[in-house]
């Protein structure tokens, strides 16, 4: 006999978010921390898809966009190609995009990457500990970390990183 397991809180949050947004992409916008957000939650050391540990602290000197996502999250899937284009456009100027998958196994992520090939650094937050440390309540959620490792901006919901308004804070931090 199968046991009933309630949906995880994160899934309910995403479903609620999709309902609030009517299932359509809304123009999410960056919100600046009222003061510099302080040091990014540390340590954030997660395995990449090859099983190598990647430490956020190792990217000091670069602007890092940390994006929390999941394969079952439609807005997450929709924004991936624009994240890829942002990395291609600004990677040479010091931007690094870290796409942190929340709670899914490597096979499921690989299956998604076969359908939607992106050359981003994909990290696995298998136990959702990084998500909790960063206080992510809804997916997708992205954070901008400046060259000193300080949190500067946050965006919750699907973003179009091809849009000039979405690129503005990134470009500001790259100066």
Question: Could you explain the architecture of this structure?
Answer:
This protein is α+β, with helices and mostly antiparallel strands. It contains five helices and eight strands. It has an eight-stranded mixed β-sheet. Strand 4, helix 2 and strand 5 form a beta-alpha-beta unit. The N terminus is likely disordered.
- H/E topology pattern: HEEEEHEHEHEEH
Q: What is the spatial order of strands in the main beta sheet?
A: 1-8-7-4-5-6-2-3
Can you summarize the main beta sheet? 8 strands, mixed
Shape descriptor? globular
Radius of gyration: 16 Å
Mean pLDDT: 85
Work out the number of β strands: 8
- Report the sheet-strand fraction: 15-25%
Between the first and last Cα atoms, what is the distance in angstroms?
60 Å
By DSSP (H or I, 4+ residues per run), the number of helices equals 5
Helical residues, percent: 25-40%
Q: Could you say which structural class the secondary elements and strand pairing correspond to?
A: alpha+beta
Give start-end ranges of low-pLDDT stretches: 1-25
SSE map:
Elements: H1 9-20, E1 31-32, E2 45-48, E3 53-55, E4 63-69, H2 74-90, E5 95-102, H3 106-115, E6 121-125, H4 129-133, E7 141-145, E8 151-156, H5 164-174
Parallel strand pairs: 4-5, 5-6
Antiparallel strand pairs: 1-8, 2-3, 2-6, 4-7, 7-8
Q: How would you describe this structure in keywords?
A:
disordered N terminus, 175 residues, 23% strand, alpha+beta, eight-stranded mixed β-sheet
């Amino acid at each position: 006999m199968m046991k009933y397991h309630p949906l995880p809180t994160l899934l309910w949050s995403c479903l609620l978010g999709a309902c609030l947004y009517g299932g359509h992409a809304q123009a999410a916008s960056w919100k600046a921390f009222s003061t510099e957000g302080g040091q990014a939650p540390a340590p954030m050391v997660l395995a990449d898809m090859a099983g190598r540990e990647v430490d956020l602290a190792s990217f000091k000197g670069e602007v890092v966009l940390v994006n929390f996502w999941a394969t079952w999250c439609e807005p997450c899937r929709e924004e991936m190609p624009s994240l890829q284009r942002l990395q291609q456009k600004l990677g040479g100027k010091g931007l690094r995009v870290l796409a942190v998958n929340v709670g899914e196994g490597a096979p499921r992520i690989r299956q998604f990457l076969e359908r939607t090939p992106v050359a981003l650094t994909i990290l696995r937050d298998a136990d959702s500990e990084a998500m909790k440390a960063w206080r992510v309540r809804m997916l997708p959620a992205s954070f901008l970390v400046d060259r000193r490792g300080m949190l500067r901006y946050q965006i919750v919901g699907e973003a179009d990183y091809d849009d000039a308004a979405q690129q503005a804070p990134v470009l500001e931090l790259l100066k």
